Amino acid sequence: MAEMPAGHEGQGFFATTLDSVIGLARKNSIWPLPFATSCCGIEFMATMGATYDLARFGSERVGFSPRQCDLLMVMGTIAKKMGPVVKQVYLQMAEPRWVIAVGACASSGGIFDTYSVLQGIDQVVPVDVYVPGCPPRPEAILDGVMRIQDLIGKESLRRRNGDQYKALLESYGIQ
Asked: Could you tell me the fold of the domain covering 29-171?
């Protein structure tokens, strides 16, 4: 059960801020979009299974349409030719949107320090949480999802309209 946001409580009523209520709803209803290319994708499949069960965290609806999802989970080796595809998928997602880089390859290129491998997806899209490992255990992926939930729950409704966020997107060539 979700923790109640801070607020004023009395006999028969509870009052809190709109930011807190929306943050609580958003963090417990994440719709992930898996972008899996390698062994990290297999670990993600284990995370979705009954033993680890990502659905406990409000993420049971895994979508494969970017227009319906708000969490992009990039897992595995991303070739430089795939960089524009990852960016296009990111742009097709509705705001607010978040990104998790799962595994060493998505985070930093991993052991593949070659001309054809993107050395981290943060070169094409902004990343909110990095999950380390090669491949990361399902527990690490769950920890990454919980960290995203913490970010979502504490995020202000006005953050996405701020100058700092707009400057971040412009640094990636996103208008």
From this structure: Rossmann fold (3.40.50)
